[in-house]
Design brief:
The chain is of the alpha/beta class. The protein has one domain (4-163): Rossmann fold. It is 29% helix and 24% strand. The protein is built from 4 helices and 10 strands. The chain has helices at 14-25, 63-74, 99-109, 151-163, and strands spanning 4-8, 31-35, 48-56, 60-61, 81-87, 114-116, 119-120, 132-133, 136-137, 140-142. The strands form 2 sheets. Strands 1, 2, 3, 4, 5, 6 and 10 form a 7-stranded mixed sheet that branches. A 3-stranded antiparallel sheet has the order 7-9-8, with no helix packed on it. Strand 3 and strand 4 (60-61) form a beta hairpin. Helix 1 packs across helix 4 (151-163). It is globular.
Length: 167
Amino acid sequence: MEKIGIYYGTTTGKTASIVEEIEFNLKKDVYEVKNVADGLGGIEELKNIILVSPSYGVGELQEDWEDVLQELKAVDFKGKNVAIVGLGNQLAFGETFVGAMRILYDAVSERGANVIGFTSIEGYSYQETESVIDGKFVGLALDEANQDDDTPLRIENWIKEIKKNFI
């Protein structure tokens, strides 16, 4: 399998902790981690990519992601497998739960990405979200405020699934 690029943005550090859990599950694989506060350098050369972002406000991207969104939208994702992780609070922000995940999904899918890692909506309690297509989240939805005990197993199972699609 080719190298996996993990790109994330974080404000409070929760997303960085999620990336560490992802790294733990990739310990036998070749990967690199990049905080998007430092840009998207190297993303063009990768075939396997994981994008991680919390949602803020009304389902908005984290500010570092917002700063690189136009750059992300300029990348040619044809031939690339992209998986997305979104963090949110389904109870406090149930009407826009993990909305940032959909923004990333739209940006990469419009540029030809093969988006992988869709997950079930079962086990969540939110009002609505744009991050669901055909009854599934467009990536891995995590709620560290209300379901943090579920996070390690959700990540472990999700990593096993997406690795089947990585080149």
